[in-house]
Amino acid sequence: MDTSYPREDPRAPTPRKADGNTHTALTLGAPRPLPRDHLIWSVFSTLYLNLCCLGFLALAYSIKARDQKVAGDLEAARRLGSKAKCYNILATMWALVPPLLLLVLVVTGALHLSRLAKGSAAFFSTKFDDSDYD
User: Fold this and answer.
1) CA distance 19 to 12
2) Is the omega angle on the peptide bond into residue 99 within 30 degrees of 0, that is, cis?
């Protein structure tokens, strides 16, 4: 955002050289793609309400990145978009890993209990005679 004074009037005619020709400057090289702000991903991360509000931080950086892109500061937009992406990755991992870990623990616990029950079922199915108590 340009805050320098005096500001130029965008409707003012451009000054011409004495020879009357206008000159055009071209930028050579491949144009860089516009920076991504990851706004949709941030909105979904925020709506999921994950721990530590990482989705909300990602949303804040995404909005800042979009504002900088609209203002024309593409380097700041890339930097803020990168931070938003990092927070989105952290929020996604924080949302996916604990439930998957809990599922693995429940399945392995159930398998362990089933093996334990098979071994102890033989003990409980043993029939004793009255002569065993003499």
Assistant:
1) 20
2) no
For the stretch 105-134, pLDDT in tens is 999 999 988 888 776 766 666 666 667 666
Q: What does pTM read for this prediction?
A: 0.62
In a domain, 3, yes or no: no
Residues of the domain holding 100: 51-67+74-132
User: In the chain, how many domains are there?
Assistant: 1
The answer as to whether 111 is a domain residue is yes
Q: Which residues of 89-124 are buried (b: 16+ CB within 10 A; e: fewer)?
A: ebbbebbeeeeeeeeeeeeeeeeeeeeeeeeeeeee
Q: Which of 32, 62, 60, 58 is nearest to 45 (CA)?
A: 58
In a domain, 29, yes or no: no
3-state class (DSSP) for residue 38: coil
89, 53 Cβ separation under 8 angstroms: no
